């Protein structure tokens, strides 16, 4: 009987080994990029290109294949990486043109609201009012960025909400999503650009629903601070 | 003759032949160690998080007053992630420096596979 068991164990062990071999093959093929890993990421921003030229880096990468730029990455003076990203977050079902139009309309509304405030206020108060919609978008996103997040973790059959620090990219994504979700919660008769403009201005002043949502998350994290060590053990 | 009291009260030794020993598993150590307790050594950012919570409670959840703590936490976390990434890459490469005392479970398993116990 004992011999049987050892034999069985050896056979299953070999099977496990076979499995690892197979999984190794699979993990090599999960790169879905159109371009092989030999291609490097280039830059489309003129100032960075000039920097490469001056430092002599351009000579080194002259014969290395370079991935093309995305079709919405331009060398224009008005190009802004955060605006580009925010457009993509607004986009649903791949309708990029619609998303871009919505954001343009939003910026127009922001400008109109701010100009109205600017013209109706006194000379001293005018210096306080920001008129650039891109700056307002940046400010709004910065104000909504969370520092921590709650992550459910199972310990001893119980799910604990564990506060964990998050990366910069995740934090930026959450901020954008909260602003867009706040803007989408509206009456049917109000258009998205109107509400989104209002939400952006509110968030840039550290008010509004998205900022409140961030503060609520931080309060929940604080309430669950006793479980914070589960992230590191 | 009086019987020895100590001998009477003592338990008689068991007959060894009555219950023969049967080895259910092979009588040798396995050529494998588990990596279950390797994770305990890695450092975290628990201290930074607790400092941030203390600051936030003091300032009624206004992060603009805790920018120093937030920055510290972000630096600590990115450092932790990069360290973990490099360690994982080294393990996958299987680099073993000769004469090293602290081996990971993967390195130990590699050695045990090369020099089995039996």
TrEMBL record, chain A:
PROSITE patterns: RIBOSOMAL_S7
Location of the Small ribosomal subunit protein uS7 domain: 74-225
GO CC list: ribonucleoprotein complex; ribosome
Matching CDD domains: uS7_Mitochondria_Mammalian
UniProt entry keywords in alphabetical sequence: Ribonucleoprotein, Ribosomal protein
Gene3D superfamilies in the record: Ribosomal protein S7 domain
GO molecular function: RNA binding; structural constituent of ribosome
Biological process per Gene Ontology, one example term: translation
Homology family: Belongs to the universal ribosomal protein uS7 family.
UniProt cross-references to PANTHER family, sorted A to Z: RIBOSOMAL PROTEIN S7
Protein's UniProt name: 28S ribosomal protein S7, mitochondrial
Gene for this chain: LOC107267853
UniProtKB/TrEMBL annotation, chain B:
Ranges in a coiled coil: none
SUPFAM superfamilies: Cysteine alpha-hairpin motif
GO biological processes: mitochondrial translation
GO molecular function per UniProt: RNA binding
InterPro entries: Cys_alpha_HP_mot_SF, Ribosomal_mS37_met
Gene Ontology CC: one annotated term: nucleoplasm
Protein name: Uncharacterized protein LOC107267376
Species, as recorded: Cephus cinctus (Wheat stem sawfly)
């Amino acid at each position: 009987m004992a011999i049987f068991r050892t034999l069985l164990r050896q056979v299953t062990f070999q099977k496990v080994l076979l499995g690892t071999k197979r999984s190794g093959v699979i993990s090599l093929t999960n790169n879905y990029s159109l371009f092989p890993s030999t291609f490097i990421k280039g830059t489309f921003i003129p100032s960075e290109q000039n920097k490469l030229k001056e430092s002599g880096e351009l000579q080194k990468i002259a014969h290395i294949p370079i991935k093309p730029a995305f079709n919405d990455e331009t060398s224009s003076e008005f190009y802004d990486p955060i605006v580009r990203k925010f457009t993509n977050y607004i986009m649903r079902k791949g309708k990029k043109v619609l998303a871009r139009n919505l954001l343009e309309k939003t910026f127009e509304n922001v400008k109109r609201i701010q100009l109205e405030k600017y013209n109706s206020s006194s000379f001293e108060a005018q210096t306080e009012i920001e008129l650039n919609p891109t700056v307002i978008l940046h400010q709004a996103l910065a104000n909504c960025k969370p520092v921590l997040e709650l992550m459910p973790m199972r310990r001893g059959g119980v799910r604990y909400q564990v506060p964990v620090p998050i990366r910069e990219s995740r934090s930026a994504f959450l901020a954008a999503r909260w602003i867009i979700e706040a803007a989408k919660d509206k009456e049917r008769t109000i258009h998205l650009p109107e509400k989104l403009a209002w939400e952006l201005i509110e968030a840039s002043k550290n008010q509004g629903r998205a900022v409140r949502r961030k503060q609520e998350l931080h309060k929940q994290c604080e309430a669950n601070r006793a479980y914070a060590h589960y992230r590191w053990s | 003759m009086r019987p020895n009291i100590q001998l009477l009260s003592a338990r008689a030794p068991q007959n060894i032949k009555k219950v023969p020993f049967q080895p259910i598993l092979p009588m040798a150590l396995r050529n494998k160690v588990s990596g279950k307790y390797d994770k305990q050594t890695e450092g975290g950012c628990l201290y930074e998080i607790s400092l941030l919570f203390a600051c936030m409670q003091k300032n009624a959840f206004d992060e603009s007053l805790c920018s120093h703590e937030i920055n510290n936490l972000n630096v600590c976390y990115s450092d932790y992630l990069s360290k973990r990434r490099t360690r994982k890459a080294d393990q996958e490469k299987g680099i073993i420096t000769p004469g090293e005392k602290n081996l990971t479970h993967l390195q130990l398993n590699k050695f045990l596979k090369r020099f089995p116990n039996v």
